[in-house]
Design goal:
Layout (H helix, E strand, L loop, with lengths): L10 E2 L2 H14 L5 E5 L3 E5 L9 E6 L6 E7 L17 H6 L1 H9 L5 H12 L5 H11 L1
Antiparallel strand pairs: 1-5, 2-3, 3-4, 4-5
């Protein structure tokens, strides 16, 4: 499981690792965001409700060191209702990276998708659609 602490100056080996760490952090904390700009050198995410929240997070690639570094982090100030029903929280990428789900599938190849749903519900309180649990199981196998 990715480290769930996000702070200015944090580094990753590549931009994709940084994006995944931010996604995992947001899901673990019940938050959401919208990607505003993304290319090979930078990644910028803002709050889904930009009218009332100044949340921003930016990851840049260092030209000299060839690492990704978090350069801007402004925390959320919006109500929690803003983050309700965020589709990325149930993505196969997030479900397949959950260490408990991976361990359960590796330990028992015949585990059912409803067990992955139960793991997510008990661990993080999120209700995961059956089809997403099924796809995560297939990705892990």
């Amino acid at each position: 499981m990715a480290d769930s602490v996000i702070e200015i100056g944090k580094t990753w080996d590549c931009l994709a690792d940084g994006r995944m760490a931010v996604l995992r952090w947001a899901v673990d904390n019940g938050l959401s965001y919208e990607v505003k700009k993304a290319d090979r050198q930078k990644w910028l995410a803002v709050c889904r409700n930009t009218d009332i929240c100044d949340f921003r997070i930016r990851i840049n690639m260092s030209k000299k060191l060839h690492i990704a570094k978090l350069t801007v982090f402004v925390p959320h100030t919006c109500p929690s209702a803003t983050h309700y029903a965020w589709r990325s929280a149930n993505s196969v990428k997030v479900l397949a990276s959950n260490s408990l789900s991976v361990a359960a599938v590796v330990d028992d190849h015949k585990i059912r998708s409803r067990h992955i749903q139960a793991i997510e519900r008990l661990q993080s309180g999120r209700r995961v659609p059956y089809i997403q649990a099924y796809r995560a199981r297939k990705k892990i196998l």
